[in-house]
Design a protein that fits this description.
Radius of gyration: 22 Å
Distance between the termini: 34 Å
Order of helices and strands: HHHHHHHEEEEEEEHEEHHHH
Helix content: 40-55%
Number of helices: 12
Number of strands: 9
Oligomer: single chain
Shape: globular
Largest sheet: 4 strands, antiparallel
Structural class: alpha+beta
């Protein structure tokens, strides 16, 4: 395996870094001022302004895979995703933010040409936003077979009833389409064939946003993480994706690339936290010498560098395997980075907060918000426990297969 960045990626990294330094970081205060104002549930003006700049210089929809009309592989996109992740609102500027990237890829992969034109094209242009409605408050949704939302066929329509929460992005007034997962065939003997996914317009009758859910006190406006009640919501039967009973299959196909994106953005956040940690440590004096001269601080800085680089190489390896052998074969590598990257980021950001003292838990340095985001991603796209269980099962299976093969050779 060769993780050298190609000339194309090197040039994109250069362009993207320059854009971040010229347009993103100098405008962080504008974003912060907006989301603290009474207009925080409206689109952020600086983001809308910078979107046009990003389009003009060709830094748009970089996430889009080659398999669906894009120009980059997962391995090529990964380092660019890391750069964008250095500021948590930056990916939207380049139309590379969750959950839209996952929803767009779902539509491109599983949607009909009509659905792609009607629903995906506006997303690709950055004119609208979307949400993914899967998690439910009443059940352990990490096991998708537990989902209770009902999707019932009535002639040429589906009728949807249920409650969803942590529907990220649904607070944005530009959010126009939901992808909703529910059960169309709860009595199917195959637990993984009971679910389906359907497209639901955000303003459809019976859709009611009941509240926003803060994350460690952050409302994440205008994005928001909403609880949504679906009461007798009717959509055309043609709004089903791929077909009845294919929801679990779609979910598995959707989450692979999304997990890579989350992990690379987290590496970007961790890199920035380490930079802030080093800067603060060299500027502050405690007990007669700079904090950077304290042994524990140096140890943490060194350990942070080791952890970040280790995570990066594991993510690049997973991206490479996805490109070369496919998401299904790479599922163990994807599961491993989904455990590793958020855990690593939480630890690095925590150490950075500690060096900042009281300032670390304030909003002055962006570390508290970064920690809240990283900690949340230990749940999103599957909690640590689920991934660890999957990794262990695959490892046991592989080791058992090796042992059986060796035993067979010995018998021969």
């Amino acid at each position: 395996m060769n993780f050298d960045y190609t000339p194309k990626v090197q040039e994109l990294r250069k362009q993207l870094t320059a854009f971040m330094n010229e347009h993103i970081h100098p405008n962080e205060h504008k974003w912060e001022a907006h989301v603290r104002s009474e207009k925080r549930w409206e689109p952020v003006p600086i983001i809308e302004e910078l979107k046009e700049k990003a389009k003009r210089v060709g830094l748009w929809n970089l996430w889009r895979p080659k398999s669906h009309g894009g120009a980059l592989t997962n391995l090529e996109y990964a380092p660019l995703c890391e750069i964008m992740g250095r500021e948590h609102w930056a990916p939207e500027v380049f139309n590379c933010s969750a959950p839209d990237t996952g929803n767009m890829e779902t539509l491109l992969k599983y949607g009909t040409p009509e659905k792609i034109k009607q629903r995906c094209a506006p997303l690709l242009e950055g004119k609208i936003r979307s949400a993914f409605l899967m998690t439910e408050p009443a059940v352990a949704s990490s096991d998708a077979t537990n989902i209770q939302t009902r999707i019932v066929r009535e002639k040429n329509e589906y009728v949807i009833n249920g409650t969803k929460w942590w529907s990220s992005g649904a607070g944005d007034p530009r959010c126009k389409i939901y992808i909703v997962m529910g059960k169309t065939d709860p009595d199917n003997t195959s637990r993984h064939s009971q679910q389906s996914m359907v497209l639901v317009p955000a303003g459809a009758p019976g859709v009611n946003i009941t509240r926003f859910l803060p994350v460690f006190g952050y409302d994440d406006a205008p994005h928001g993480h909403m609880e949504i009640d679906l009461k007798d919501v009717r959509v055309p039967a043609s709004n089903v994706l791929l077909g009845e009973g294919r929801g679990f299959e779609i979910a598995q196909g959707r989450l692979g690339p999304g997990r890579i994106h989350h992990c690379m953005r987290l590496i970007g956040q961790a890199e920035r936290a380490l930079e802030k940690m080093c800067k603060r440590a060299t500027e502050r004096v405690a007990f007669g010498r700079p904090v950077s001269d304290q042994g524990v601080t140096r140890e943490r800085i060194a350990e942070a560098r080791i952890m970040i680089d280790s995570a990066r190489f594991m993510v690049l390896n997973a991206a490479w395997k996805m490109d070369t052998v496919g998401n299904k074969v790479a599922k163990k590598e994807i599961a491993m980075i989904k455990v590793l990257a958020p855990t690593m980021a939480c630890q690095v950001i925590d150490w950075a907060m500690q060096v900042h003292g009281g300032g670390g838990v304030s909003d002055d340095f962006g570390l508290a918000r970064a920690y809240a985001h990283a900690r949340t991603l230990r749940f999103a796209d599957g909690p640590d426990e689920v991934h660890r269980n999957q990794i262990a099962k695959m490892e046991i299976g592989e080791q058992t297969s090796v042992a059986e093969a060796l035993a067979k050779v010995r018998r021969i």
